[in-house]
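Why this split exists: single-chain examples teach little about how molecules sit against one another. For that reason, every record in the complexes split bundles all components of an assembly together and asks for one structure covering all of them. Below is a record exactly as it appears in the raw files.
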Amino acid sequence: MSHKLTETKDLTDDKVVFGLWLYILSDCVLFAGLFATYAVQHGQLFGGPAPSQIFDLQNVVIETLLLLTSSFTCGLAVLFAFSEGKANSTNKVVAMLGLTLLLGLAFVGLELREFHTLLLNGNSWQQSGFLSAFFTLVGTHGLHVTLGSLWMLVLMVHIYMRGISTGNKRKLLAFSIFWHFLDIIWIFIFTFVYLFGLM
Amino acid sequence: MSTLTSYITGYVLSILLTLAAVGMLLEHIHTIHTFPAHTELMAGFIVLAIAQLLVQLFFFLHLGRGQNKHWSAAILGFALFVIAVVVGGTLWIMSNLQNNMTNVLQGGTFINGQVNVVNEND
């Protein structure tokens, strides 16, 4: 099974995609600031709970697997859009994006449930420096995933209405870079917030 | 290498790296925080996170392909430099502050916005 990517090469050299890459890297700098804040604040408990007391490993592992899988299905959507001679590939692309959307929303749902449990137990962002930094860092990532889901929904409508045009291919490629980037940020949250917090 | 193979390889590797990190953590907890030892575990987590980053960059984002690859890589390098300065610099400055302030809290007084360090010789 060979998928030839004839147009990807042209599109990865596209100015729009290159500009998106610039945005992604400046967003990385934003997250670097939030990570640095968390690193400084994670020990400032002010009588509140420690990280190991409030993190649920099982929940976090499920979140991670959901996001990794959504990154994979997003890649498959790009693959189907750019592969040649595939009849009906519009449906395949929309289906893969739909799957990615469901996985993304499941991730956001699990994260909101975690936040809800924390708030119910009185562990809000006002409790301590640790919790302020935690909610800011993880919440900013969650907001990115939520807005990415909205972007994905609009993209699905575009592809469904107009098929896989060159413009839509560019949009899909730009979106996929953003989605993979969110996956990378999550890997570092998973490692430096959750795994480090639980050990 | 076809792109489908690339995506599947990347996906399998990313799952394995995640499970390896979780396995290390569980082993650490089961052995009552003795094996792997604290510092080794932290080092292991960092290595696995960097491996995961590389897997995502090469198998999913296909870094290093296309004619713009040098520019993309150069900007990535610059972003990594800025990140290192922001995170490293913050930790450095704040740990310095912490040391000095802890000294003040233990051996000095804080009156009218001025720090008066109590000297042992006084």
